[in-house]
Amino acid sequence: MMGPEVNAYLIVAAFLFATGAAGVLLRRSPLVVLLSLEIMLNGANLALIAFSRRFGELDGQVFALAVMAVAASEVVVGLGLIVAIARRRLDLDVDKLSTLRG
Amino acid sequence: MTTAAWICLLSPLAAALVITLAGTRISRRMAGRLATLSTFVSFGAAVWAFVLMLGRAGDDRREVSTAWTWLTAGELRFDLSILVDPLSVFMMLVISGVGSLIVGYSIGYMDGDDEERRYFAYMALFVFSMLLLVQSANFLLLLAGWGLVGLASYLLIGFNQQRPSAVAAAKKAFIMNAIGDATIALALFLLIWEVGSLSLDFTSGGEGVPLDGTVATLVALGLLGGAVAKSAQIPLHTWLPDAMEGPTPVSALIHAATMVTAGVYMLVRLSPVFEAAPEVQDLAAGLGALTLVVAGLIALVQTDIKRVIAYSTMSQIGYMFLGAGLAAYGNAMFHLMTHAFFKALLFLGAGIVIHALAGEQDMRRMGGLRARLPRTYLAMLVGGLALAGMPPLSGFFSKDSILASALAAGTYGQVLFAAGLLGVFLTGLYTFRMLFIVFGGKASTHVQEHLHVPRRSEPALWMALTVGSLAVLSVIGGWLQIAGVWHPLSDFLHTAAEPKVEPSVTQDWVTAAISVSLGLAGIALAWWFYGARRTKVPEATAIRRALEHKLYFDEAYDALFYRPAAAVAREFGRWIERPLIGGSVSAAAAGARGLGGRVRLAQTGLLRNYALALAGGLAVLTVVFLSLSS
C-alpha cells in the first residue's frame, strides 16, 4: 500500500499546529480559543500517527488515542466554564476575564 | 523500713494529684480532709519507719532504696532513690507531724474560700516536695526537691492572685531562691567535674569521695549560697517578711516550720563537705549570728503581727545556722524541731487572731484580746515563752544547747555566743512587745467593732484541736533532750552527723542561767514599755527609721542590682535592639516586599499573554534542541 511520503503528513501536522497556535494567540472569544486548542491537539496527533507509520511501531497510535481522551475531557471542562461565564452574563472575551491580575 | 519511707513520700503526692484531677467532683471540705488524711498517713508511715529503725543496731540504720535509674549521661548515672537514715527519718517525723497539724488547721482557716481545692492541692504538693528534699539519696534529687519546695512556696505566697502585693512577694521569693538554686547548681557542676558522682554517700568506701582544698571550699560555698537563700539568712533574707502575704497556715508550715529550715538540714546532711571547708562552716555560723541579731532588732519596730513572727523566724534559724556552723549538729536539729512546734503555734495563734478580727494584721489596731480570746491568749503565751527560752518550755532546752556549744567552740565560738545572748534578750523583748500590744490593754475601737468569736463548728474545731496539740508539743517537746540528764536525740542522729563540739555540763548550766536571766530582762523591759506603759517608748528617730526600713537592704539591692540592670537594658534597647535586631528584621521584610512588588507585574491576568509566553518558550527550546542536535 503506497501513499504520500511521511514528510507530507508532517508538513500538514505542522500547518495544523501553527494554525491552532495562531488562533489561541489572536482570537478573543473563549469558544474559538478552545476550538483552536483542539486543532493544535489534532496537529500533534497527526504527527504522532505519521511517525508511528514511519517507524512501524504502534506506540504513536496508542498515544494519539490517549490524547483524544484527554482532549475530550478538556473540552468538557472548557465548555462548562464558558457556559458558566455566559450564565452570569459576562462578556465572552478572554481579555476582559483578567480578575487574577497580580 | 524503706517501704514505710516510700509510703510517707508518695501519700501527699497522691492527694495532690487526686485533688487536682477530681476538680469540682469533690467538695471543698472533702479536698481539705483528703489533704489532711494524706499527711496523717505520711506521719504514720514516718513513725512506722522510726519504730523499725529503733529495732536495728546503730550501723545498720542507713538504707538506700532505688526505684529505677532516672538519668544516665555517659559515665554519670542518677537513680531515683531515697535514703533512709536517722537524720531523714527525724526530718520526716517533723515535716509530716507538724505538716499534718497545719494542713488540718487550714480546713478551719480556709473555710469558705473560693479556691480551697487549689490551696489544698498546693499544700499536699509542698509536703511531698519537702519530704523528697529530705529523703533524696543524691544531690540531683535533693536539688529537685529544693526547687519543688520553692515552687510550692511561690504558688502559696501568691495564692491570693488578685492582690498585686501577694504576686510581687511571690516573685521576690522565687527570684531570691533562684539565686540560691543557681549557686547549688554551680557547686554540683563542680562536683561532677571533680568527683564524677553526686552521691550523698560520704561514708568510707562510698561514692561521694571526700573533697579537700579549693574544690571543697568552692563546693561548700555554692551549697551555702543555696542554704542561705532558702533559710532567709543575711544577705538573701529579704523575701521572707514579704512572704507573709500568703495565707497564715502557709506562713506557719512553709515559712516557719519546714521549708526555711531546709538550709539547716543541708548544713547537717552535707556536714562532710562543710567540714572539709572549715572557713565556709565558720562563715555559716557567722551569718547565722549576724542574722539572729539583725532580725531581732528589726522585729522590734514591726507593726504587722505576722511580720514580727517572720523576723523572729529568721532570728531563730540564725541560731540553727550558728549551731550547724559550729558542728553542733544534734543541737541544731533539736532547735529545728522545737522551733517548728512553737513557731507554728505562734503563727496559727496569730491566724486565729487575724481571723477573729476580719483579716486585720496591724497590731496597732488590736489590743485587749486577752478577755475576748482567752484560749488563744494562753496558746500564744505558751508559744511566746517557748520562743523566749523560758524553762521548762521547749525553746529553753534547744536554744541553750546551741549557745552552750558556741561557748565550748573556742574564741570564735565565744564571740558568736555573745551575739546569741544579745539575740536572747531581743527575743524576749520583741515577743512580749507583740503579746502585750495584741492581748494587753484595753480593746481598741477596731476590736470592739470587728471582733467575732467563731461559733462551734467543724472548721473551728479543727483550728482549736491543732493549736492545742502544738501548744502541748511546745511545752513538752524540749524534754526530749535535757543537758546533763539525757540526750537521746543527739545519740539518735549521731550516726548521720557526728557533732564536733560537746559542751560540758557546767557550760550548759552557766549558759542556761545567763540566757534565762537575759530573756527575763527582755520580757521585763517589754512589760515596762508595752504592758504597764510606765514610760513612753523612746523615740530614737534615726534608729527607728533605719529599722523600719529593715536596714535598707531592699533599697540597697534596688540601687545595686535592679537600677543598673534596668538602665543597661534600656540603653541596649535603644542602641542595639532597635537599630540592629529590629532593623535587620524590618530590612528583610522590606526587601521581600519590594521584590514581590516587581514580580507581581508579570501576572497580567491576560490569557493570551500566558499563551504567548508558552509559545515563545517552546520556540526557544526548539531552536536550542535543533542547534544542539545538528
Secondary structure blueprint with pairings:
The complex is a heterodimer of chains A (102) and B (630).
Chain A: H1 6-26, H2 30-55, H3 59-87
Helix pairs in contact in A: 1-2, 2-3
Chain B: H1 2-22, H2 28-54, E1 63-73, E2 76-84, H3 86-109, H4 116-135, H5 139-157, H6 164-194, H7 213-230, H8 239-242, H9 248-257, H10 262-269, H11 271-275, H12 278-299, H13 305-325, H14 329-356, H15 374-387, H16 394-407, H17 410-439, H18 445-450, H19 458-476, H20 488-493, H21 505-531, H22 541-548, H23 553-600, H24 607-629
Antiparallel strand pairs in B: 1-2
Can you give a write-up of this model?
- The complex is a heterodimer of chains A (102) and B (630).
- Chain A has three helices and no strands.
- Chain A is mainly α and 102 residues long.
- Chain A has one domain: Helix Hairpins (Orthogonal Bundle).
- The longest helix of chain A has 29 residues.
- The radius of gyration of chain A is 17 Å and the shape is elongated.
- In chain A, 12% of the residues are buried.
- The longest helix of chain B has 48 residues.
- The mean pLDDT of chain B is 88.
- In chain B, a hairpin with a 2-residue loop joins strand 1 and strand 2.
- Chain B has a two-stranded antiparallel ribbon.
- Chain B has 630 residues and is mainly alpha-helical.
- The chains are: A mainly alpha (102), B mainly alpha (630).
- At the A-B interface, helix 1 of A face helix 24 of B.
